[in-house]
Amino acid sequence: MTDRFHYAGSLLSISILPAAMISANAAMAQDLTPVSFGTNWVAQAEHGGFYQSVADGTYAECGLEVTIVPGGPQVNNTALMLAGRIDFYMGGHLDAYFGVAEGLPLVNVAASFQKDPQVILTHPGRVDSFDALTELTMIVQDNAVYYEWMKSAFGFNDEQRQTYTFNSGPFVVNEDAGQQGYLSSEPFAIERETGWAPDVYLIADAGYNAYSTTIQTLRDTVESRPEVVECFVEGSITGWYNYLYNDNSAANDLIMADNPEMTQEAIDYAISVIKENGIVDSGDTLELGIGAMTEERMNSFYEKMVEAGVIEDGLDISTSYDLSFINKGLGMDLRPQ
């Protein structure tokens, strides 16, 4: 299963389909092709582009009735896709590489996030660079792939690592610690709890160039239903532009309906840091459009994972992605000039 922090374990265990889900206008269902999209966590702003295209009818305009199937700690939407119970999954860059290694037909067809939102948090002013984090106790969960890369690229080690249990208490009381987090979540929560804002180091800005929040499907879906893949990918791209730069209130209403613990304040914070840090729209997207992926970057990240000992050398990773539905500049006119 892939959660929002790391790949862990087999992709083959199957969980029960969650009850919480949303769909496009049911009255139009008889005229639309039903499609289900499993997310990697409970509903939140990081899924906003997809909710946007459900809310404003973008998917329906090209013929799809999209149902969003939220993820969570007990949900394995990758396995559900492999079992044919959902059509698309909100995957990760590395998932598909592991799929190649395991003989699974996983294919990334777009990357919603150009930067992985994984961060390291420190007490304010404790260090002044990513390199200096090596001085600290690192509170990081077991089997975190990005930490393996940090060890390889910067010299971090296992002896300085303390297991993260998704409780920020040990970090809050230890000024000599750095803690993992998600850009739009833990910094917000810690500031609300303590009154001080932690310093935030985005691992992507240090060279961890994984794509994140990918649109992932099966090879058979790409080959047998390319028109469905095209509609879903292009609808999602348009959704992200509209969610970031236009009226996103209807999408946010759907997010909060699907996740009653979500607040507008948390959504607003997440959108602001996503935009400020170029999570969705930066780098290649400025010329190729949101959702962009390139062969060069695929190969670069694979080489880094091999060097870090995360995955074996010699895999044909070209089977793990398909660039034919992206890189066309779709929706760029929706970006403010």
Explain what the structure shows.
With 337 residues, this protein is of the alpha/beta class. It is 35% helix and 16% strand. The protein has 13 helices and 11 strands. The protein has helices at residues 48-55, 58-61, 77-82, 93-102, 145-154, 169-172, 186-194, 219-224, 226-245, 249-258, 264-276, 285-288, 295-307, and strands at 22-23, 33-38, 64-69, 88-91, 106-113, 118-122, 137-140, 161-163, 177-182, 199-202, 212-218. A 6-stranded mixed sheet has the order 1-3-2-4-11-5, with helices on both faces. Helix 1 (48-55) packs across helix 9 (226-245) and helix 1 (48-55) crosses helix 10. The longest helix has 20 residues, at 226-245. It is globular, with a radius of gyration of 19 Å. It starts with 21 loop residues before the first strand and ends in a 30-residue tail after the last helix. Residues 1-22 and 24-29 have low confidence and may be disordered.
Q: How would you summarize this macromolecular structure in one to three sentences?
A:
This protein is of the alpha/beta class and 337 residues long.
Topology order in helix (H) and strand (E) letters: EEHHEHEHEEEHEHEHEEHHHHHH
- The amount of helix comes to 25-40%
- Spatial ordering of strands, largest sheet: 1-3-2-4-11-5
Rounded to an integer in angstroms, the radius of gyration calculated over CA atoms is 19 Å
**Span between N and C termini?**
40 Å
Write down how many β-strands occur, each being a DSSP E stretch of 2 or more residues. 11
Structural class: alpha/beta
The averaged pLDDT comes out at: 92
- Extract low-pLDDT stretches: 1-22, 24-29
The major pleated sheet works out as: 6 strands, mixed
Q: How many distinct helices?
A: 13
Strand content: 15-25%
Give the CA-based shape.
globular
